[in-house]
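Supplementary Note 3. Input sequence used for the single-chain structure prediction.
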Amino acid sequence: MFKRLTIIGLWVTGLALNASGVIASEALAKAQYPIEDRFAATVIGTPHAYKAELPAEIPVKEYTLPGLHPVPKLFWYSEGLRFSAALQKGRAPLVFNIAGTGAGYKSQKMLALQKALYQAGFHVINISSPTYLNFLINASQSNLPGFLPEDAKDIYRVMEQAYKQIEGDVEVSAFHIMGYSLGAAHAAFVAELDQRRKVFDLQKVYMINPPVNLYHSVDIFDHMLEANVEGGLQGVGVFLDRALNRLAASYEPKEGMHFDGDFLYKAYSSWDLSKRGTGPEGRNGAAALIATSFRLSSANIVFAADLMSHSAYIIPPGTEFGRRERLDYYAKASHVVKFTEYVDDMIIPYLQQKQPDKSREQLLKEASLHHIEAFMAGNAQLRVVTNRDEIILAPGELAYMEGLLGERIKVFAHGGHCGNIDSKENVADMVAFLKGEKS
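The predicted structure, written as discrete structure tokens, is reproduced below.
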């Protein structure tokens, strides 16, 4: 049923960002990671002096796998599933590296992790998130990403195909898997699946800043937008205009323009420290940017999933788009949809058609780490790293992981959500674990 076309009057007011700096002077002197504001840490990432030393370039080759479905004309530029591989010359372990929500195989964080792993002597295959457009339209069986057990099957199939494509060029001593954010949860679900299928016999599982319950985490983002963007969703347009104006001052044409999370984060991190932070009425500029970035990713997922699955959620039945179609109307409609609504209105009905005996609550639990907690608790070669000030965990979820994993979870004091992913300490911990050494 066509549900969303009446919701349009958007993007009329915005958020002014001003206020305090975010790096405490005492923290600079004492802490391993210096940014104490968890939202600013998430946005800014690791200051240069605290980053792990990584090579400027490594030998990376990009590949394309055939897609599962015909690609609509609108997505003509994204035909075939893409991934990349950085391969050692000799025999070495191979790490499958899975991206976070809405991120591709060559997003900023994925490239940093690939360089760190290659430098440490691993073969590395970078795989996009099932929520990334290229993966969604080419490799999602259902075209409705977000239900982790089915996402894991899609990722596992891609892993098999990707390895088959590079198998003749590589000598592998063992297979490992890792991911960050949503990709970390995917890594655990894939490893649990591999325990039954035994195609790779994955040895180690490394999870960076995973959500415990995806539904809880995206609900946090939705509330973050309402609390920190003046006017809530209707203020996103003006907020983005101001962010873009800030970025224009330092824009480098040679780098190209990619309107994604990395782009927005650069917009924020290029601002003067004295002019960002907490604004009027307790609004936080970094939190606003994080929530807005997530909503952009979420809107892309909603639109592409609706188009590919023919769900008729925001796109009327039988609608066909040409290569140069104007999508303003659908962009506005998709930005209204919360990710939790996408789950409730699109994913849950699809799953209940296949499994009518299961309730919404049962299916949501199956998309959380609770569903595979026996596997996680019993796997001595599984490790989680996260931060005490993580923004995507609901109350009690960090304690849950600590109780479940004991010494197999490491919790840093600061870093927000993946802000310290490429810090010296985090990279050292990742390499040590995957090599079987003490960190």
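The mean pLDDT is 85. The radius of gyration is 21 Å.
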